[in-house]
UniProtKB/TrEMBL annotation:
InterPro entries: Class_I_gatase-like, CTP_synthase, CTP_synthase_N, GATASE, GATase1_CTP_Synthase, P-loop_NTPase. Pfam families: CTP_synth_N (PF06418), GATase (PF00117). The lineage of its organism: Eukaryota, Metazoa, Ecdysozoa, Arthropoda, Hexapoda. This is CTP synthase. Residues 6-276 form the CTP synthase N-terminal domain. Pathway: Pyrimidine metabolism; CTP biosynthesis via de novo pathway; CTP from UDP: step 2/2. Its EC number is 6.3.4.2. PANTHER family: CTP SYNTHASE, CTP SYNTHASE-RELATED. It catalyses: UTP + L-glutamine + ATP + H2O = CTP + L-glutamate + ADP + phosphate + 2 H(+). It comes from Nicrophorus vespilloides (Boreal carrion beetle). Keywords: ATP-binding, Glutamine amidotransferase, Ligase, Nucleotide-binding, Pyrimidine biosynthesis. Gene3D superfamilies: 3.40.50.880, P-loop containing nucleotide triphosphate hydrolases (3.40.50.300). PROSITE patterns: GATASE_TYPE_1. Belongs to the CTP synthase family.
């Protein structure tokens, strides 16, 4: 255990969105593989208190934490890479800092003093970082030893000046041997010349140093691999040694990034610079084995599955980052590469057939040809009818379907309209006065205040006793209770639950009080499952989310043998599939089950003890 907390500040230059989140996560991944406890903090310089009221088109998806914190999507990267559980305070915003300082001023903590950016705001930032860095985030419950801090935006932005000044002071507060800075910069390569340009990086580093922070590591992002001569030039003009310049080109998988960074000798440098005490005799790259194995497996997958995401914010793929990552985790674990097709929900609506027939027919063509469909969450009226249409098509045509949050609600509405024949069935989110309000708001979560008032965070879902044979319960290893993260303001109207279940829509999971519906499943469908919670938030590269795993396997007609095996894949199947293998396994297991049955005195039959292996 190190005596002092170590801090790695990750800044960005030239452009935003250069990949600081993945680079920060990769730093943490490498250190965690060395046996070091790691935590992460993301700083967003905007004045909002949190990301909860953002449109996904602003900064991508809103990621939800266990404690209900609505945060930047980069915290999702941290959790997926490091397999940790972060808290709302791991996301710092200008709004949070100013609110804390103003509350202190109102309380009288600064009596007699003028409250200013320096020292009061900068001190508050430093205190926040030191406090949060000590909070355990891993399953071990141990205090972190290294805190990786990502400063959002670009160096030179007026919004982030207070944070840059805070860390200029902070490096002296914690001492040099406990603090280092990594600067992520873009190295563009104009097509007109084909030459990689270092001037933007030089200017960015000069700006950073002018603000009092000298980078210890420069991470150069580029489309193609950077030449050694370019690396030497950056080293020469940016006042760092060549081994402190790390070049990360665009890669086929983000899980290759920590492997590439480690190959640049980052462990040896950080070990010396921060006095981490890592065993120098640790076999090179052996400690990264699980990441190397994962990236090689992804690289060598031969079969593909195509999944459609019918959403409302499809113009920006980052709007569904966690969903796409969860699909990739499940597909890769099942032995498939994945092709994701984004379909704008409003293009599936009948009105679009008149307004833009080309978009309408293209959307339906894309939906029909995919092997499975996901309808994710969202807010507002736009696109709801398109999501209902997608759910209807999947139900009628036995297409594997996974609905999440709003996708859960729209599937219930579709069932009420077309199976129960309840004309006018809809959600109160779209219309205030309804003949059949199938989806209603939760009064305690609709207070008039929009920020932070939804049903948020990790909550328990209990499987009903009648759900023991359901696919989704078996995918969750027949657990009686599961915990998943939520983010919603509307729920299924309890008045219609009996009618819906009588019609064949089985609600297999409910909240702990038994009043709110959490999961439904259609029994006679290959895979028609929807959840009120967001299973994508807890998906990890090594442990895919069960609902997504079910969708992928159902899309390839592999779900039945997977469930018979007790939710296990054979080593061969994890990498490749023989089209006939699963049918043979199913037939063999059914035969074994029949042989294991012994007659009872009443003429019925039961399984003998020899069948326990199944």
């Amino acid at each position: 255990m190190m005596s002092n907390m170590k801090y790695i500040l990750v800044t960005g230059g030239v452009i935003s969105g250069v990949g600081k989140g993945v680079i920060s996560s990769s730093f943490g991944t490498i250190l965690k593989c060395c046996g070091i406890e790691v935590t992460s903090i993301k700083i967003d310089p905007y004045i909002n208190l949190d990301a909860g009221t953002f449109s996904p088109y602003e900064h991508g998806e809103v990621y939800v934490l266990d404690d209900g914190g609505e945060v930047d999507l980069d915290l999702g990267n941290y959790e997926r890479f490091l397999d940790i559980t972060l808290h709302r305070d791991n996301n710092i915003t200008t709004g949070k800092i100013y609110q804390m300082v103003i509350d202190r001023e109102r309380h009288g903590d600064y009596l007699g003093k003028t409250v200013q950016v320096v020292p009061h705001i900068t001190d508050a930032i430093q205190e926040w970082v030191e406090r949060v860095a000590k909070v355990p985030v891993s399953k071990t419950g141990k205090t972190p030893e290294v805190c990786i801090i990502e400063l959002g935006g670009t160096i030179g932005d007026i919004e982030s000046m207070a944070f840059v000044e805070a860390f200029r002071q902070f490096q002296f507060r914690v001492k040099r041997e406990n603090f280092c800075t990594a600067h992520v910069s873009l190295v563009p390569q104009p097509r007109s010349t084909g030459e990689q340009k270092t001037k933007p990086t030089q200017a960015s580093v000069r700006e950073l140093r002018g603000l009092g922070l000298s980078p210890d590591i420069i991470v150069c992002r580029s489309e193609k691999a950077i030449d050694q001569s370019v690396r030497n030039k950056i080293s020469n003009f940016c006042h760092v040694a060549p081994e402190q310049v790390i070049c990360i080109q665009d890669l086929s998988s983000i899980y290759k990034v920590p492997i590439l960074m480690e190959s640049h000798g980052i462990v040896e440098y950080l070990n010396e610079r921060l006095q981490l005490g890592i065993n120098p005799m640790l076999p090179a790259r052996k400690f990264m084995k699980q990441w190397i194995d994962l990236s090689e497996k992804i690289e060598n997958l031969r079969n593909e599955v195509e999944i459609a995401i019918v959403g409302k914010y499809t113009r920006l793929e980052d709007s569904y980052t966690s969903v796409t990552k969860a699909v990739q985790h499940a597909a890769n674990a099942a032995g498939f590469s994945v092709k994701i097709k984004f379909i704008e929900a409003s293009n599936l609506e009948n009105e679009m057939k008149q307004e833009c027939p080309a978009s309408y027919h293209e959307a339906w063509h894309d939906l029909v040809k995919t092997e499975g469909v996901i309808v994710p969450g969202g807010f507002g009226k736009r696109g709801v009818e398109g999501k209902i249409a997608a759910a209807n098509w999947c139900r009628v045509n036995n297409k594997p379907y996974l609905g999440i949050c709003l996708g859960f609600q729209t599937a219930v509405i579709e069932f009420a309209r077309n199976v129960l024949k309840l004309e006018g069935a809809n959600t109160a989110e779209c219309e205030e006065v309804l003949e059949h309000p199938i989806i209603i708001d939760m009064p305690e979560h609709n207070t008039g205040q929009m920020g932070g008032t939804m049903r948020l965070g990790k909550r328990s879902t209990v499987f009903k006793q009648s759900a023991s044979s359901s696919k989704i319960m078996r995918l969750y290893n027949n657990r009686d209770m599961i915990e998943e993260r939520h983010r919603h303001r509307y729920e299924v109207n309890p008045k219609y639950i009996k009618d819906l279940e009588a019609g064949g829509l089985e609600f297999v999971g409910v909240d702990v009080e038994g009043t709110r519906m959490e999961i439904f499943e259609l029994k006679k469908h290959p895979y028609f499952v929807a959840t009120q919670f967001h299973p994508e938030y807890l998906s990890r590269p090594m442990t895919p989310s069960p609902p997504f795993m079910g969708l992928i396997l159902a899309a390839k007609d592999r779900l039945k043998p997977y469930l018979i095996r007790g939710c296990k894949l054979s080593p061969r199947q994890e990498y490749d599939y023989d089209e006939s293998e699963d049918e043979e396994v199913c037939a063999s297991m059914v035969q074994q089950l029949n042989l294991a049955r012994v007659p009872e005195s009443d003429g019925s039959s039961a399984y003998s003890s020899s069948s326990s292996m199944l």
